[in-house]
Write a structure and sequence with these properties.
73% of the residues lie in helices and 2% in strands. It has 488 residues and is mainly alpha-helical. The protein has one domain: Growth Hormone, Chain: A, CATH 1.20.1250. The strands form two sheets. The chain has a two-stranded antiparallel ribbon.
Length: 488
């Protein structure tokens, strides 16, 4: 974790590698609140899955769709966010996200049928999609280059804290009612309160959006250079504000030689190569199956012999582990770089997922009535937590860091939106398919995730250069070939 001295504000001795200005820390933390809602809204369904399935008498396929439909909304929200952010700025998109989170929390909490529940989860998904794009884009654009990796990782830290808060509240409500399906307060079942509590962070997020300034890079692109310069004085006090603005304008001017403003098109299957890199990074992050742990872990651990109370407690511990290892990533990302962390994480994920596949190959029984003999149950539990550690310390936060810095300024919001949309579609496919695949073969399912984790190692090895310590304008040159200026 960063030492206290690195967080002190300083405006003197810029050559001595000054700490992060307090203004920047405050803005980054505030911007990351969307990540908290992202994690909370996406994971709160974990403790409610079995109760929802029982109340509405759902089969495995419809249960999977009810859980996963929010992710389709996420994909739509991510794409909308990119377009809205380019046209209107980051702050209006944050406000819209807060409203959608609020509506979704109320709608899912009072849902009267599975169709109704699906609609409101889709609405919440749109809000998650908006937050998933705006938070990393905003944080990257207000962060000093020396500390951008650490600050951009706050997005993933906020997500992990949101996941932890969701699973903890699920456990508390379920235990208070002696079961998620049991009545708690005012005649409402505990699973409904799991959703309704989301009203509180939704209101907080909207209030935060009201207080935040617009991204200085967006202000420059809108011709509001004086406002941008004033903001740069507070977020980059040791830098030459005029030089930063010149770099932003020069990068935008160079980009205009190759394509019209805002275009993502290129010769590589319809998109620019850098856009495909973002899309593949996003999809690999999800295809390793991380959200199986956070969406279905309670159901999974019950299936191998744990009681509902114990399985919820295990899920909470797993989420807490995810928070702690994200802090490790934040401490290391600006010290040892992006590539080494991603490569190490890929190896750890492949080995732990392979161990889970081996453990479940020893299971007896079928469907939900499986059990792991002898030491295989604790082995599977330990391997699952090692997988979370490896993901949380590498691919979880660092993909968001890279997505915030590899795209040219003129297409950053829209390209990040497209990459995030691809991430949510991949998440949807994994979430929807897991109940069915698990009922067929858990060893095959986890084995497939292990193969994808292995593939992620080679993708980083051959396609991802190091961006540590570079400005956004410098980082994009590693991924985008700049055209030669036209001769007069």
């Amino acid at each position: 974790m960063a030492s206290k001295t690195t967080l002190k504000s300083t405006t003197t001795h810029p050559s001595r590698n000054p700490g992060i200005p307090r203004k920047v820390v405050g803005l980054a933390v505030a911007g990351a609140v969307g990540g908290f809602l992202f994690g909370f809204d996406a994971s709160v369904v974990n403790g409610a899955v079995d109760a929802i399935q029982g109340q509405f008498k759902l089969g495995d396929a419809l249960t999977g769709f009810t859980v996963a439909v929010a992710l389709l909304g996420c994909a739509l929200g991510a794409w909308i966010a990119g377009k809205l952010a380019e046209a209107k700025g980051h702050i209006p998109v944050m406000k819209l996200g807060g409203i959608l989170f609020l509506v979704s929390a109320l709608g899912t909490g009072f849902a009267f049928s599975v169709a109704d529940l699906i609609v409101w989860r889709f609405v919440g998904g749109i809000g998650i999609g908006l937050a998933s794009v705006i938070a990393p884009a905003y944080i990257s654009e207000i962060s000093p280059r020396r500390h951008r990796g650490r600050l951009a990782s706050l997005q993933q830290l906020a997500i992990t804290i949101g996941i932890f808060a969701a699973l903890l509240s699920d456990a508390l409500f379920a235990n208070a009612a002696s079961g998620a399906a049991q009545e708690l307060w005012f005649g409402l079942a505990a699973w409904r309160w799991m959703f309704l509590i989301g009203v509180v962070p939704a209101i907080v997020y909207y209030a935060v959006a009201l207080a935040l300034p617009e991204s200085p890079r967006f202000l420059v692109q809108q011709g509001k250079e004086e406002q941008a310069a004033e903001l740069f004085k507070t977020i980059a006090p040791g830098e030459d504000q005029e030089r930063i603005i010149r770099e932003i304008k020069a990068a935008a001017k160079e980009d205009s030689f190759s394509a019209r403003k805002g275009s993502l098109r290129g010769s590589r299957f319809g998109f620019m190569p850098v856009v495909w890199i973002g899309i593949i990074l996003s999809m690999l992050q999800q295809f390793v199956g991380i959200n199986v742990i956070f969406f279905y872990s309670s159901t999974l651990w019950q299936a191998v012999g744990f009681q509902e109370k114990d399985s919820l407690a295990i899920s909470v511990v797993t989420a807490l582990v995810n928070v702690l290892v994200t802090l490790v990533a934040i401490a290391l990302v600006d010290r040892i770089g992006r590539r080494p962390i991603l490569l190490t994480g890929s190896i750890g994920m492949a080995l732990s997922l392979g161990t889970m596949a081996l453990a479940f190959s020893s299971a007896t029984g079928t469907g939900a009535d499986i059990s792991l003999p002898g030491a295989w149950a604790p082995t599977a539990l330990v391997a699952a937590n090692i997988f979370v550690i490896c993901f949380g310390a590498s691919w979880g936060p660092l993909v968001w860091v890279l997505l915030g810095e590899i795209f040219p300024a003129r297409i950053r919001a829209r390209a990040l939106g497209l990459a995030a949309a691809a991430q949510w579609i991949a998440n949807f496919l994994v979430t929807l398919s897991f109940p069915v695949m698990a009922s067929v073969s858990l060893p095959l399912t986890y084995g497939m995730y292990a193969v994808i984790a292995t593939a992620s190692f080679f993708f980083v090895m051959f396609k991802i250069p190091e961006t540590n310590g570079m400005s956004l304008e410098q980082a994009e040159t590693l991924f985008v070939k700049k055209p030669k200026a036209r001769k007069p």
